[in-house]
Every structure is written in C-alpha cells, then in structure tokens.
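[job 0412] stage=complex_fold ligand=alpha-D-galactopyranose status=START
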Amino acid sequence: MIARHSILFLLAIALSGFALHAFGGRQTPPARTAAAKPETMTHPYGKTAEGHAVTMFTLTNAHGLELRAMTYGAIITSVRVPDRSGALGDIVLGFDRFEQYLNDPPYFGAIIGRYGNRIAGGQFTLDGRTYSLAKNNGPNHLHGGRKGFDKAIWQATPSAGGAAVAFSRASPDGEEGYPGNLQVRVSYTLTDSNELIVEYHARTDKATPINLTQHTYFNLTGDVAGDILGHELMIRADRFTPVDATLIPTGQIAPVEGTPFDFRRPTAIGARIAQPHQQLANGNGYDHNWVLNRNGQGLEPAVRVVEPKSGRTLDVATTEPGLQFYTGNFLDGTIKGKGGRVYARRTGFCLETQHFPDSPNKPAFPSTILRPGQEYSTKTVFTFGVIKEGRAE
Ligand code: GLA
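[job 0412] stage=complex_fold status=DONE, emitting structure tokens
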C-alpha cells in the first residue's frame, strides 16, 4: 500500500515536472485555464475624422495569450504573453485610445504597404514606364507613401471558432502613385502553440511592386520603462545590405563577419550598437536589411530573441528573403504611449520580414514585381515562449 502511494507520489512529481518543462519554467496558471477554447471577440473601438467606424478584435488562445488588432491599418495594438513566472505582460508598443493612432505615430503595429521600406528618389521604372511616388522621407519614398496601408480602413472577417481575424482591402489603381488594382488580404492567427501566424495574399490587374510587412515594435520586458538593448538577438544571416546616409541600399551585399551586424550567435542588441562603424552611423543604430540564410522557398527560421530578465523569447520564421531589423532609433521621447509611458529612443525593436528595400531600382535584388495572374503569398510566424532561470537559449 505504502509502495503504491509512493509510486503515485513519484508519478505526480514526474507529471508536474513534465508540465514545467512543457511550459518552459515555473508557471502559475495564466488568466484562463489550459482547457479554454481559443476565441475571437469583436468590439467597436473608435471613429476616424471622416466618420468611419473602427472595430477591434481580441484573439485569445487556449493558454490565455491575447492579441488585439483593429481595422485601422490592420494594426496590432497589444500582445499579452506570459513571462517565466506565468504573469501576462504586453510586449508591443502602442496606445490606449484610438485617437492617439491618428497622430501619425511611426507605424506602431501596422501593416505596411504597398511597399515596405524605401524606394530611392520616390521613383521606379517598370516595363518602360516611370512612376513617381511621394517623397515622404527626405529624398525618398517610405512605407507606401503619405497614406499607406497603415492608415487605411480594412474589411475584417473574424474567425467563428478560433483565434483569428482576416483583414482585406482593395488598393485602387494609382493609389499613392502605384499601378494596378490590388486586392490584399492579411490574416492574424493565434495558435495554441503560442504562435502568431501572419499570412499575406495579393492579386493585381497591372504589374506593380509589392512588399508587405508587419511593423510591430517589441519590448519583451512587458514594461516599456527601459530600452531594448539587453535583449539577446540571433539572426540567421551571413550577409546584409549596407545603406547610404539616406538609408537606401548601396546595392552591395556585404558579409556580416567581423562587423557589429554579425548576430549569428546570440548577442545583446546593445553590445555593439555604439561602436564607431559607418553603417551604424548611417542607420543611426540598426536600421538595415539582413539577407536571410535560406535553403528554399518555404517557411524557415530567421530570428530568435531572448529577454533575460522576464525570460520571454520570440522566434520568427518566414518565407521572405530579408529582415529589416530596426532598433527604434527615431523614437525620441515625444510620444506618450500606453499608460502614459514615454517611448524613448530604443524602447522597441521591429523585425520586419520582407524583400530588400529599393528592390524596384535594384535589378540584382530578388524581384518585388507582382504581375496579373500571379498570386503574392508570404507567411511569417512569431512564436512566443519562455526560458528557465539563468538559461540564455
Ligand atoms: C522602418 C525604417 C526606419 C523608420 C521606421 C519608422 O523600420 O527602416 O528607418 O523609418 O520604419 O520610423
């Protein structure tokens, strides 16, 4: 009898040990029980100056992780994930009230289109015709122009029985100077494996450049009181694309070896950011495109971030060839975000999976041209996790 009890006791310990291992550390139950069903809730959030109603969607998975996204800009406004003690914290920059998103913030949480990042001189030539775009970033065109996809109202279809929402919009021929009527669809799915899956689809009726990305600023501490320089970053890339002083790629594809751009081994973001290096000077920190090491066309691991204090981790896999890693160098403390927090320089970082900047003017870069009859289809998966105390991998 005693023996049976002790076997049961040992079994209970073993099972709890397994649970600890599976959830990656000391874990108090999150807000909801593990048996909860994933769901998507819909609620009104605000109105634009033109009177368009904006709707918010709250996606919750079976473990209580929660993501909020709205129809304005398909903006992700919050992502709440547990730290190593199981406490949920919001790991993205943004605002509490809708009106604050209308003050032209630096693309917090938004979908960027039609073209993520810069096009030199606001101009490109396609099939013999030259197109002029807004120069909304010094001499260059940035993130789709004056009113890019980040400022559009999207149609939304929330999932009936899961944690997902699909946003779609028709970008008319000539919008912001781009050719072709473009039908775009972007979906966010929060899985019970603690992944955020972002899928992008588009079709056009005229050839057009397209480079869609997600511009969330992460700070895995769950508290934007401090900078992100202590986060440890790994990028699977042997090469990057150096830029000129206006952040346009020079066209060169340079090795990261021996430079502050070598993140092939986990390294604190801040370890080398202040080194005297011409590329860091041009970028005002990290604001560059890494050429991801790829084997094929599919979804491949690209990035791992570990925040040692909270224990939170973020893994990114993508079908895209490039990653714009941006360390929030232009945040200058003039923006007050959630809870009145001041967003100072480098309090958030972006991991923008995409094609390379200025590809329409760089024939040697992978093409960003979508033609009628083709389908644009890319996917990026963000996986949220935790590490145990003292482990940095
Ligand atoms: C991108 C760019 C940066 C900056 C931010 C928005 O990440 O690469 O240079 O423009 O967007 O502030």
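Residues 1-29 form one domain.
[job 0412] exit 0
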